[in-house]
Amino acid sequence: MESIDLLVLRTARDWLAAGECVLLATVARTWGSSPRPVGSMMALRNDGRVVGSVSGGCIEDDLIHRYTTVHGGNGLTDGAPEVVRYGVSADEAHRFGLPCGGTLELILEFSPSWQSLEDVLVQLDAGRLMRRCLALQSNTVTLEATAAPEQFSFDGQYMINTLGPGYRMLMIGAGALAEYLACMALFNGFKVAVCDPRPEYIETWAVSGVECIVGMPDDVVRDFAVDLRTCIVALSHDPKLDDLALLEALHSPAFYIGAIGSRRNSQLRRERLIEHFGETQASLERLHGPIGIYIGSKTPAEIAVSVMAEILAAKNGARLPRELSIASSKAHAGLPETH
């Protein structure tokens, strides 16, 4: 399952290629509480079909009614982009299902250029990060490659949205936990790869849609073209595999690096990396371990939920309170050395 942004752009392109009229809506600004963050996109077809989301559903219903039902689909063919706002009054917020005090501003692009969508998708599919700028007054779109993502912005004249290849996960170790975690990552739109040089593990891998890589983990991490949208998770329980992968990962721009293990094993790993491989307490600040948030998990499926929650928090820039960490929670409760 690919990311929702790529799905919206790809669907809009395909609809346009089939001769359909399309409206591309983007959340430009929000005030107060909002169901969807800025940059969220939705594509609306002339027959009322929708992909993506800009709210909890009520605003989508209003857009369908306003631009397809009332105008018979012709409401999608107007030229210049429009800026529309929902939830300014308490009555509107209630009507459209917005949280109390929430206000949402959308940019509506009518029949966006098929060629522009095709161009950006070609670049995204090639793994490039792209900066898309819409000039509302001239209704022109410019695309350029960029080295790092920037915050979505809209100043009333220009909408700038950084679009990137989907988030990726590289797992070291093809055991049961990795299979559950892979399923969760795929469901959340990650492109997933698993590395394991042990044939007895990699040859029994059962999750489809995952790239299986046979090789030494440090070489695989080095060749993986790790970027700011990559997370690396060591799950083999074998220091010879996990440590090598982590050494490479720690010097990469990955947004999340973590390793499975008990509190004791995690501490021993840190000591090994410092004593034998020249790492420091500062360089190990990025290393999560034990990984996951504390939910009392014991089975591989529950541990995968715990780990995926921590990864998503890192992806979304959410700072988790110390009380949710495995180590802190278990130490406070006096629990034994298991995950």
From TrEMBL:
<protein>
    <submittedName>
        <fullName>Cytochrome oxidase I</fullName>
    </submittedName>
</protein>
<feature type="domain" description="XdhC Rossmann">
    <location>
        <begin position="169"/>
        <end position="311"/>
    </location>
</feature>
<dbReference type="Pfam" id="PF02625">
    <property type="entry name" value="XdhC_CoxI"/>
</dbReference>
<feature type="domain" description="XdhC- CoxI">
    <location>
        <begin position="15"/>
        <end position="86"/>
    </location>
</feature>
<dbReference type="InterPro" id="IPR027051">
    <property type="entry name" value="XdhC_Rossmann_dom"/>
</dbReference>
<dbReference type="InterPro" id="IPR052698">
    <property type="entry name" value="MoCofactor_Util/Proc"/>
</dbReference>
<dbReference type="Pfam" id="PF13478">
    <property type="entry name" value="XdhC_C"/>
</dbReference>
<dbReference type="InterPro" id="IPR003777">
    <property type="entry name" value="XdhC_CoxI"/>
</dbReference>
